[in-house]
Amino acid sequence: MAKDKNEFKIAVGEPVGVVAAQSMGEPSTQMVLKSFHSAGMSSVVTTTGLPRIIEIIDARKRLSFPTMHIYMEKGAEKSYEKAKAVKRKIEGVRLGALLSSFQENLRTASMVLEFDREKLSANDLTTKAVLDRIRHSFENVEVTNDGERATVKYKGKRDIKGVRMTFVRIRGLTVAGLEGISKAVIQQDDNGNFYIMTAGSNVAGVISIPGVNKDRIYSNDIFEIQSVYGIEAARNLIAHELAKTIGDEGFTVSFSHVALIADAMTYSGKIRSVGRHGITGDKTSVFARAAYEETVKHFVNASVFGERDMLKGVAENILIGKQVNVGTGRIRLAIKKDDLRKIKAASE
Fold first, then answer.
1. Taking phi first (over 0 means left), then psi (-120 to 50 degrees means alpha), and beta for anything else, what does residue 330 get?
2. How far apart are CA 152 and CA 141, in angstroms?
3. Which helix H or strand E contains 150, and what residues bound it?
4. pLDDT of 179 above 50
């Protein structure tokens, strides 16, 4: 049964893609190129403004500043001590941060580590636990310890580059907390509930930590959200991040336009960028692909493989000067031959 015409949200033939692009593009030109530092959190930085828009639209897998917001489980939201305990389990501690000094000897392929007792104690770690982690993570080293001092000897092939890289990886080894989270800071919202903001993201790891509200974990890493929660969650995150970034800059864009972009990036079941390596590059129209970037390449390939362009889209019709099949361009007028004769006779 056909719907009443008043139920439709847009007119038939409305070029929704063009309108969405214009609605997003115009305010984007006025956005500030900057990163955002939270008050009192110099170590936790988030990307805002135009750089964040570009990050999302380009579907970049490596973010400049991935972050998470993690809330406590129900009943413990207002307990600072419980939030502190969870923070300790989340914040990644690298081996290098526990050392007072270290010495490398590339000639003997060995490295001496001097541990700082206070740093070990502050992170509830022992020398034995740290060295066991090294043994478990690196099979090509031999570890011996003497109190707060340990010696790591490389057992592989005597290659200076290999020895050096192994020693650097050992000092960068995460011995406590979660991999990928370099800093965690406890914050309090307007309702007095404590939450943890992190520099870095590891959704799968955070979910497994006791005391965390699994329904209130937020990450700005789109690909990580997709891998843990699925493509629909990633689509919602793209739309939310775009709308939030634009709103934070003081602009207003209808959520319908933002949602259309998110849908276009994810409808295939995977996240695709808007550029030539994603949506635009996958278009069936040769002219549409050539109009964006790498014009000569697209025309040459189309010639080699004998591609045909049916001229059904907007970009390709504009390119060749043909009327676009949207808006008033969808209207086709016809006149009867008898009426045409009468008109000609009247004009003569």
1. alpha
2. 6
3. strand 149-154
4. yes
Q: Where are the domains of the chain?
A: 67-91+180-219, 93-176
3-state secondary structure of 320: helix
**C-alpha to C-alpha distance for 77 and 80, rounded to whole angstroms:** 8
Cα–Cα–Cα angle for 78, 67, 165, rounded to 5 degrees:
125
Burial of 298-311, coded b for 16+ CB within 10 Å and e otherwise, reads beeebeeeeeebee
Q: 93-176 architecture in CATH? A: 2-Layer Sandwich (3.30)
CB-facing half-sphere around the CA of 34: CA atoms within 13 A: 9
For the CA atoms of the chain, what is the radius of gyration?
Answer: 29
CB 62 within 8 A of CB 84: no
Closest CA relative to residue 57, chosen from 31, 81, 39: 31
Q: How far apart are CA 28 and CA 53, in angstroms?
A: 8
Which sign, positive or negative, has the C-alpha torsion 320, 326, 328, 334? positive
Q: Are 29 and 38 in contact (CB under 8 A)?
A: no
* Sign of the Cα pseudo-torsion (88, 91, 97, 99, in order): positive
Higher pLDDT, 53 or 33: 53
SS3 255: helix
Alpha-carbon dihedral sign for residues 150, 156, 157, 162:
negative
* Average pLDDT of the residues in 133-152: 84
CATH class given for the domain over 67-91+180-219: alpha beta
Nearest to 12 by CA among 312, 331, 316, 322: 331
| Pair 181, 91: CB distance under 8 Å | yes
How does pLDDT run across 72-107, given as a tens digit for each residue?
988 888 888 888 889 888 988 888 888 888 989 888
Residue 203 has pLDDT above 60, yes or no: yes
Residue keyed to tokens 């007119």: 11
Segments of 5-80 assigned E as strands: 35-37, 45-47, 67-72
Residue 240: CB atoms within 10 Å: 16
φ and ψ of 337, to 5 deg? -60, -40
